[in-house]
Amino acid sequence: MKEKAVITAAITGGIHTPSMSKYLPITPREIADEAVRAYEAGAAVAHIHVRNPETGQPSPDLKLFEETITRIKSQCNMVICLTTGGALGMTPEERLAPVSAFKPELASFNAGSGNFGLFRAIERFKDFKFDWERQFLAMTDDFVFMNSFRSMMAFAPIFNENKTKPEFEVYDSGMVNNVAFLVDNGYVKRPLYIQFVMGLLGGITASSENLLFLVEYARKLIGDFEFSVCVAGRDQFPICTQSLLLGGNVRVGMEDNLYLDKGVLAKSNGEQVAKIVRIARELGIEPATPDEARDILHLKGIDEVGF
To answer: Is there a contact between 89 and 132 (Cβ–Cβ < 8 Å)?
Structure first.
C-alpha cells in the first residue's frame, strides 16, 4: 500500500440517464458544483463529461465543456480529466476535440474496442423522462464501442502535441496488450497511467481474482505503471478498496455507480468520495491533494492547460 492515493470523481459520465437518479448532475453549473463537492471531500481529479442542459443527453458541445471546466478551475485546483470516450455513437473527431481545444493535464484514452451493453437497464426503469433515454439504452444490444488500432494511433499524437497525459481505460485483458503495442512502437511514452474499468456488460467482470490478474498481467507485459480502478455498479467500493490494498488509486462517482449503499441513492459525488476516503484512512492511506496527484501521475501542471 501507498501512503497517498489519488481519488478521482467521475461526475456524470455518459451512461446513466436522468430517469435513473434525480441527483445526477446535468447542467454545467451542476457538474462543476459536484466536482467542487468531490474536491472538498478529498478528490484530487474530476473526470468530466457534459450533457445537454435541457434533456440530460450526453453531448460533445465544446461550449458546455468550456463552461464546466472554467467553473471548476475558478473554485479549486483539481486536476481535470476530460473524456475522449464521450458517449456511445459520437464520432472519433467529436470525442477527441476537447483535448485539442482545452489541452487538459489528463484525458481518457480508451485502449480497445468492445461491446458496451446498457440495454438491461430498460427492465429496471420502466418510465423515462425523455424519449432519447429508452432509445439510447436499447441500441446497445447491437453496438460496438470502436477504438481500433488506427484510431488509437491517430489519437496518440494529439495527446503528445498537447502534453496531455493519457489515462488508459482498460475494459478487458486484451486491451493491456494494446497498451503494450502503443508503448513498444513509440506512440506513447512512459510513465504510464492505466485505469482498469470493471463490471460493464461486454468487459471483464468485477471480482478480486480478476483485478489481481489484470494488475499482474499488466506488470508482466508492460513493467512499471501507475494504476487506478473504477467499477460499474454495486461492486464499486469493495473492488476500489482492493485497489488501495494493492497500491493502486481509485475512481468513484455517479458515472460508475448511482448508489452510496444498498438501496440508497448517492445525493452527490462528494458522498461517494467521503466514503472511499474513510475506507482509505482506515487502511492508513491519505487522499492525495491535487498537487500531490500531479507529482504521482507526472502531469504537466495546471498552468499549462488551455482553459
So the answer is: no
Mean pLDDT of 141-160: 95
- What one-letter code names the amino acid at 88? L
pTM of the model: 0.97
pLDDT digit string, tens, across residues 192-248:
999 999 999 999 999 999 999 999 999 999 999 999 999 999 999 999 999 999 999
Domain that holds residue 148: 4-299
Element (H, E) at 106: strand 106-110
| C-alpha atoms less than 13 angstroms from C-alpha of 104 in its C-beta half-sphere | 29
Q: Is residue 121 one of the residues assigned to a domain?
A: yes
Q: Is position 307 within any domain?
A: no
Split into its structural domains, the chain has a count of 1
Kindly report the CA angle at 185 between 149 and 169, in degrees rounded to 5? Answer: 50
DSSP state of 19: G
Q: Is residue 176 part of a domain?
A: yes
Tell me how long the chain is.
307
204 lies in some domain: yes
CB 14, CB 83: distance < 8 Å: yes
- Kind of pairing, strands 4-5 and 286-287? parallel
The residue type of 44 is A
Q: Tell me, what amino acid is at 25?
A: P
DSSP 71: H
| Whole-number average pLDDT of the chain | 97
Contacts of 271 (CB under 8 A, 6+ apart): 41, 260
CATH code at position 140: 3.20.20.70
> How would you classify the pairing of strands 106-110 and 165-170?
parallel
pLDDT of residue 90: 82
Amino acid 101 reads A
Predicted local confidence at residue 89, as pLDDT? 81
What's residue 41's pLDDT? 98
For CA atoms 71, 77, 78, 80, the dihedral sign is positive
